[in-house]
Amino acid sequence: MTTALNIDLQVEELQILAGQCLGRPLQQLQYISGGRNNRVVRAESMVGPVLVKSYFYHEEDPRDRLGSEFGMLQFLWNH
Q: Among 46, 48, 71, 75, which is least packed by CB within 10 angstroms?
């Protein structure tokens, strides 16, 4: 499942929304440094570690960052 999350979310909001998307609660969120237009977070769930990525969003920027990245990953997987 892919769901875009706003990069400006606070840790608590990100934890709740990502947990709802995954269908299980998340604990121990740890930001991974280095992102500029997104945030990457490692979290623990009942079934093991997960990676959560939230993308930059601005109403004047119509780019589909999640769609672009997912499309590229699909291309790489298939080739």
A: 48
